[in-house]
Specification:
3-stranded antiparallel sheet; DUF3347 domain-containing protein; single chain
Length: 167
């Protein structure tokens, strides 16, 4: 094999490599997840869920809380069937976290904390949810969403005013 034919083969291999690289790059760029916009109905469902969360957290602020998660759960059912993939994913993440009736408050607080983190994502990503503010308590290292600007810590009955408004 002479030098020119070796050089020709290397150029041919290099061209195949370049074309393969371009095809791979185009394929990678075309595989981005499609962003599905939230419609008004989705925004309203998110608002309903956040309103139910408000009701539950206000119950936890009482001396002897008796939270009823039934309506929150029903709103989750509606979110799951809304047709929006993000709402469905959030619903699937929230469902196993719902406190059961008669569970002790300490285990409920852990679940509520995880629920609040998902609700914060919903508030951030779904438009028109600005009436809810994020609060954070460094003493218990937990966040929550509520209306208003006054700190009302649902996690620490002995220090309801512990925390700060984040957004």
């Amino acid at each position: 094999m002479n030098f020119n034919s070796q050089l020709g083969k290397k150029n041919q291999n290099m061209n195949v490599f370049r074309i393969s690289l371009i095809v791979f790059a185009i394929f990678t760029l075309s595989c981005k997840e499609e962003v599905i916009p939230f419609e008004t109905a989705h925004e309203n469902l998110a608002a309903k869920l956040l309103a139910e969360n408000q009701i539950l957290l206000e119950e936890y602020l009482k001396e002897d809380p008796k939270p009823n998660w039934k309506t929150f759960s029903e709103v989750l059912d509606t979110l799951a069937t809304s047709g929006h993939p993000k709402l469905k994913t959030w619903t699937e993440s929230l469902r196993p976290l719902l406190p059961t009736t008669g569970s002790d408050l300490e285990s409920s607080y852990e679940k509520i904390s995880k629920i609040q983190e998902i609700l914060i994502q919903i508030k951030t990503e779904v438009p028109n949810q600005s009436q809810y503010n994020r609060f954070y308590c460094p003493m218990v290292d937990k966040s929550w969403l509520m209306t208003g600007r006054e700190v009302k810590n649902p996690y620490a009955p002995e220090m309801r005013d512990c925390g700060e408004l984040l957004q």
